Amino acid sequence: MTSPEFTRNRDNFCYRHPDRQSFVLCQRCLRTICPECQTQGAVGVICPECMAEQRREQTPAQRQAQRRWGRGPAPVAVRGGQPVVTYSIIGITAAAYVLSLFTGQLLPQWLAFNGVFLYPQYSGTFEPWRLWTGALVHSSLWHVGLNMLSLWMIGRILEPLLGRWRFLALYLIGALGGSVGVALLDLGGWVVGASGAIFGLFGALVIIARHLGANLTGILIVLGINLAIGFIPGMGISWQAHVGGLVAGALAGLVFARTRRPNQRGLQIGLLTVLVVCLFLLLLVPPLIYG
Question: The domain at 83-290 falls in which architecture?
Protein backbone atom coordinates (compact mmCIF):
# COMPACT_ATOMS: atom_id res chain seq x y z
CA MET A 1 0.00 0.00 0.00
CA THR A 2 1.15 3.55 -0.73
CA SER A 3 -0.08 6.98 0.11
CA PRO A 4 -1.93 9.20 -2.40
CA GLU A 5 1.11 11.51 -2.51
CA PHE A 6 3.31 8.59 -3.56
CA THR A 7 0.93 7.51 -6.31
CA ARG A 8 0.51 11.01 -7.71
CA ASN A 9 4.24 11.75 -7.84
CA ARG A 10 5.18 10.15 -11.17
CA ASP A 11 8.80 11.21 -10.69
CA ASN A 12 9.12 8.27 -8.32
CA PHE A 13 8.33 5.75 -11.09
CA CYS A 14 10.11 4.55 -14.20
CA TYR A 15 8.73 6.35 -17.27
CA ARG A 16 8.79 3.08 -19.24
CA HIS A 17 7.38 0.91 -16.42
CA PRO A 18 4.91 3.06 -14.44
CA ASP A 19 4.52 0.39 -11.73
CA ARG A 20 8.23 0.33 -10.83
CA GLN A 21 9.65 2.92 -8.43
CA SER A 22 13.22 4.14 -8.68
CA PHE A 23 15.59 6.82 -7.40
CA VAL A 24 17.78 6.79 -10.52
CA LEU A 25 17.52 9.29 -13.37
CA CYS A 26 18.77 9.08 -16.94
CA GLN A 27 21.74 11.44 -17.13
CA ARG A 28 20.68 12.77 -20.55
CA CYS A 29 16.90 13.24 -20.41
CA LEU A 30 16.59 13.25 -16.57
CA ARG A 31 13.64 10.84 -16.61
CA THR A 32 13.31 8.24 -13.83
CA ILE A 33 14.35 4.74 -14.94
CA CYS A 34 14.13 1.36 -13.21
CA PRO A 35 17.04 -1.15 -13.08
CA GLU A 36 15.84 -2.97 -16.19
CA CYS A 37 16.04 0.26 -18.22
CA GLN A 38 19.43 1.40 -16.91
CA THR A 39 22.48 1.25 -19.16
CA GLN A 40 25.79 2.38 -17.71
CA GLY A 41 27.14 5.37 -19.59
CA ALA A 42 30.39 7.29 -19.31
CA VAL A 43 28.87 9.25 -16.45
CA GLY A 44 25.86 7.78 -14.69
CA VAL A 45 23.17 5.69 -16.35
CA ILE A 46 21.23 6.22 -19.58
CA CYS A 47 17.73 5.15 -20.63
CA PRO A 48 17.20 2.95 -23.73
CA GLU A 49 15.97 5.83 -25.93
CA CYS A 50 18.97 8.02 -25.11
CA MET A 51 21.32 5.08 -25.63
CA ALA A 52 19.79 4.42 -29.06
CA GLU A 53 20.12 8.09 -29.94
CA GLN A 54 23.74 8.10 -28.78
CA ARG A 55 24.52 5.14 -31.01
CA ARG A 56 22.84 6.82 -34.00
CA GLU A 57 25.04 9.86 -33.45
CA GLN A 58 28.24 7.80 -33.63
CA THR A 59 30.40 8.44 -36.67
CA PRO A 60 31.54 5.51 -38.84
CA ALA A 61 35.04 5.94 -37.42
CA GLN A 62 33.74 5.65 -33.86
CA ARG A 63 31.78 2.49 -34.69
CA GLN A 64 34.82 1.00 -36.40
CA ALA A 65 37.02 1.78 -33.39
CA GLN A 66 34.47 0.20 -31.09
CA ARG A 67 34.45 -3.00 -33.12
CA ARG A 68 38.25 -3.01 -33.41
CA TRP A 69 38.75 -2.84 -29.67
CA GLY A 70 36.04 -5.38 -29.01
CA ARG A 71 33.88 -3.04 -27.01
CA GLY A 72 30.24 -4.03 -27.17
CA PRO A 73 27.33 -2.10 -25.73
CA ALA A 74 27.89 -0.65 -22.29
CA PRO A 75 26.84 -3.01 -19.49
CA VAL A 76 23.58 -2.54 -17.67
CA ALA A 77 24.08 -0.82 -14.32
CA VAL A 78 22.07 -3.39 -12.40
CA ARG A 79 21.63 -6.37 -14.71
CA GLY A 80 18.10 -7.68 -14.53
CA GLY A 81 17.61 -5.84 -11.27
CA GLN A 82 20.40 -7.82 -9.59
CA PRO A 83 22.06 -5.91 -6.71
CA VAL A 84 25.71 -6.43 -7.62
CA VAL A 85 27.18 -4.52 -4.66
CA THR A 86 24.94 -6.38 -2.23
CA TYR A 87 26.08 -9.73 -3.56
CA SER A 88 29.71 -8.59 -3.55
CA ILE A 89 29.55 -7.56 0.11
CA ILE A 90 27.90 -10.88 0.99
CA GLY A 91 30.61 -12.77 -0.89
CA ILE A 92 33.48 -10.87 0.75
CA THR A 93 31.95 -11.24 4.22
CA ALA A 94 31.32 -14.95 3.71
CA ALA A 95 34.90 -15.39 2.51
CA ALA A 96 36.18 -13.60 5.62
CA TYR A 97 34.14 -15.95 7.82
CA VAL A 98 35.48 -19.05 6.05
CA LEU A 99 39.02 -17.69 6.37
CA SER A 100 38.48 -17.11 10.09
CA LEU A 101 37.65 -20.83 10.47
CA PHE A 102 41.17 -21.66 9.31
CA THR A 103 42.96 -18.94 11.28
CA GLY A 104 41.19 -19.40 14.60
CA GLN A 105 41.05 -16.13 16.51
CA LEU A 106 43.83 -14.54 14.50
CA LEU A 107 41.60 -12.80 11.94
CA PRO A 108 39.13 -11.40 14.51
CA GLN A 109 42.04 -10.14 16.57
CA TRP A 110 43.25 -8.15 13.55
CA LEU A 111 39.90 -6.92 12.32
CA ALA A 112 37.37 -6.82 15.19
CA PHE A 113 36.43 -3.40 16.52
CA ASN A 114 37.47 -2.15 19.92
CA GLY A 115 37.41 1.57 20.59
CA VAL A 116 40.66 1.59 22.55
CA PHE A 117 42.59 0.91 19.34
CA LEU A 118 41.64 4.38 18.14
CA TYR A 119 43.47 6.00 21.06
CA PRO A 120 47.18 5.24 21.50
CA GLN A 121 47.03 6.50 25.10
CA TYR A 122 44.86 3.50 25.97
CA SER A 123 46.19 0.72 23.74
CA GLY A 124 49.65 1.89 22.74
CA THR A 125 48.71 1.54 19.06
CA PHE A 126 46.51 3.20 16.42
CA GLU A 127 44.45 0.91 14.18
CA PRO A 128 41.72 2.98 12.46
CA TRP A 129 40.88 0.27 9.91
CA ARG A 130 38.91 -1.50 12.63
CA LEU A 131 36.16 1.11 12.18
CA TRP A 132 35.11 -0.82 9.06
CA THR A 133 36.77 -4.23 9.21
CA GLY A 134 34.74 -5.21 12.26
CA ALA A 135 31.82 -5.64 9.84
CA LEU A 136 33.71 -8.44 8.08
CA VAL A 137 34.18 -10.82 11.01
CA HIS A 138 31.42 -12.71 12.81
CA SER A 139 31.23 -14.89 15.88
CA SER A 140 29.29 -17.83 14.46
CA LEU A 141 27.61 -19.26 11.39
CA TRP A 142 24.23 -18.06 12.68
CA HIS A 143 25.63 -14.59 13.21
CA VAL A 144 27.01 -14.17 9.71
CA GLY A 145 24.03 -16.00 8.19
CA LEU A 146 21.38 -13.75 9.75
CA ASN A 147 23.31 -10.58 8.96
CA MET A 148 23.85 -11.56 5.33
CA LEU A 149 20.21 -12.60 5.02
CA SER A 150 19.18 -9.14 6.24
CA LEU A 151 21.64 -7.53 3.82
CA TRP A 152 20.26 -9.59 0.95
CA MET A 153 16.67 -8.64 1.77
CA ILE A 154 17.32 -4.91 2.17
CA GLY A 155 19.92 -4.66 -0.59
CA ARG A 156 17.50 -5.97 -3.21
CA ILE A 157 15.30 -2.97 -2.42
CA LEU A 158 17.76 -0.18 -1.76
CA GLU A 159 20.55 -0.82 -4.26
CA PRO A 160 18.34 -0.56 -7.37
CA LEU A 161 16.77 2.59 -5.91
CA LEU A 162 20.03 4.33 -5.06
CA GLY A 163 22.49 2.89 -7.54
CA ARG A 164 25.68 1.00 -6.79
CA TRP A 165 27.96 3.72 -5.49
CA ARG A 166 25.35 5.38 -3.29
CA PHE A 167 24.44 2.03 -1.80
CA LEU A 168 28.10 1.20 -1.10
CA ALA A 169 28.59 4.62 0.50
CA LEU A 170 25.51 4.04 2.65
CA TYR A 171 26.78 0.65 3.82
CA LEU A 172 30.18 2.08 4.77
CA ILE A 173 28.60 5.05 6.56
CA GLY A 174 26.36 2.69 8.53
CA ALA A 175 29.37 0.57 9.52
CA LEU A 176 31.25 3.70 10.57
CA GLY A 177 28.26 4.94 12.57
CA GLY A 178 28.03 1.61 14.40
CA SER A 179 31.69 1.76 15.39
CA VAL A 180 31.36 5.36 16.54
CA GLY A 181 28.36 4.38 18.66
CA VAL A 182 30.39 1.65 20.36
CA ALA A 183 33.34 3.98 20.94
CA LEU A 184 31.04 6.55 22.55
CA LEU A 185 28.93 4.21 24.68
CA ASP A 186 31.09 1.13 25.27
CA LEU A 187 34.75 2.04 24.97
CA GLY A 188 36.82 -1.09 25.45
CA GLY A 189 34.09 -3.47 24.32
CA TRP A 190 34.87 -5.95 21.55
CA VAL A 191 32.41 -5.92 18.67
CA VAL A 192 32.20 -8.08 15.54
CA GLY A 193 29.62 -8.29 12.80
CA ALA A 194 27.90 -6.18 10.17
CA SER A 195 24.96 -5.23 12.40
CA GLY A 196 25.88 -1.53 12.47
CA ALA A 197 25.96 -1.40 8.67
CA ILE A 198 22.70 -3.40 8.43
CA PHE A 199 20.96 -0.99 10.80
CA GLY A 200 22.33 1.84 8.68
CA LEU A 201 20.49 0.33 5.71
CA PHE A 202 17.37 0.01 7.86
CA GLY A 203 17.57 3.68 8.85
CA ALA A 204 18.00 4.84 5.26
CA LEU A 205 15.19 2.56 4.08
CA VAL A 206 12.77 4.10 6.57
CA ILE A 207 13.64 7.66 5.53
CA ILE A 208 13.53 6.95 1.80
CA ALA A 209 10.30 4.96 2.07
CA ARG A 210 8.76 7.83 4.02
CA HIS A 211 9.91 10.27 1.33
CA LEU A 212 8.32 8.10 -1.36
CA GLY A 213 5.09 7.89 0.61
CA ALA A 214 5.28 4.11 1.08
CA ASN A 215 3.59 2.25 3.93
CA LEU A 216 6.17 1.93 6.73
CA THR A 217 4.28 -0.39 9.06
CA GLY A 218 6.08 -3.60 8.11
CA ILE A 219 9.51 -1.95 8.04
CA LEU A 220 9.02 -0.32 11.44
CA ILE A 221 7.84 -3.58 13.03
CA VAL A 222 10.88 -5.49 11.80
CA LEU A 223 13.19 -2.63 12.77
CA GLY A 224 11.66 -2.35 16.24
CA ILE A 225 11.98 -6.09 16.92
CA ASN A 226 15.61 -6.19 15.82
CA LEU A 227 16.45 -3.07 17.82
CA ALA A 228 14.73 -4.37 20.96
CA ILE A 229 16.59 -7.70 20.84
CA GLY A 230 19.85 -5.84 21.36
CA PHE A 231 18.67 -4.62 24.77
CA ILE A 232 17.84 -8.09 26.14
CA PRO A 233 20.37 -8.94 28.90
CA GLY A 234 22.62 -11.88 28.21
CA MET A 235 22.18 -11.85 24.44
CA GLY A 236 25.69 -10.54 23.85
CA ILE A 237 24.46 -8.10 21.21
CA SER A 238 25.91 -4.61 20.91
CA TRP A 239 22.92 -2.27 20.98
CA GLN A 240 25.41 0.60 20.78
CA ALA A 241 26.43 -0.48 17.27
CA HIS A 242 22.78 -0.84 16.27
CA VAL A 243 21.87 2.66 17.45
CA GLY A 244 24.96 4.24 15.93
CA GLY A 245 24.43 2.58 12.56
CA LEU A 246 20.72 3.39 12.57
CA VAL A 247 21.27 7.10 13.20
CA ALA A 248 24.08 7.40 10.64
CA GLY A 249 22.09 5.50 8.02
CA ALA A 250 18.96 7.57 8.61
CA LEU A 251 20.93 10.80 8.13
CA ALA A 252 22.51 9.46 4.93
CA GLY A 253 19.07 8.39 3.72
CA LEU A 254 17.78 11.90 4.36
CA VAL A 255 20.60 13.30 2.23
CA PHE A 256 19.77 10.89 -0.61
CA ALA A 257 16.06 11.67 -0.40
CA ARG A 258 16.56 15.43 -0.53
CA THR A 259 19.29 15.59 -3.20
CA ARG A 260 18.15 13.20 -5.91
CA ARG A 261 18.30 15.59 -8.89
CA PRO A 262 21.40 15.45 -11.12
CA ASN A 263 22.18 19.12 -10.49
CA GLN A 264 22.32 18.34 -6.76
CA ARG A 265 25.08 15.75 -7.06
CA GLY A 266 27.72 18.11 -5.70
CA LEU A 267 25.47 19.04 -2.80
CA GLN A 268 24.83 15.35 -2.10
CA ILE A 269 28.52 14.52 -2.01
CA GLY A 270 29.19 17.56 0.16
CA LEU A 271 26.50 16.66 2.69
CA LEU A 272 27.66 13.05 2.89
CA THR A 273 31.21 14.31 3.44
CA VAL A 274 29.98 16.55 6.25
CA LEU A 275 28.19 13.57 7.80
CA VAL A 276 31.35 11.45 7.72
CA VAL A 277 33.42 14.31 9.16
CA CYS A 278 30.90 14.74 11.99
CA LEU A 279 31.14 11.03 12.79
CA PHE A 280 34.92 11.31 13.00
CA LEU A 281 34.62 14.40 15.21
CA LEU A 282 32.46 12.39 17.62
CA LEU A 283 35.48 10.13 18.12
CA LEU A 284 37.12 13.06 19.96
CA VAL A 285 34.53 12.71 22.73
CA PRO A 286 35.46 9.35 24.38
CA PRO A 287 38.79 10.57 25.82
CA LEU A 288 36.87 13.46 27.42
CA ILE A 289 34.32 11.07 28.92
CA TYR A 290 36.55 8.24 30.06
CA GLY A 291 39.61 10.33 30.95
Answer: Up-down Bundle (1.20)
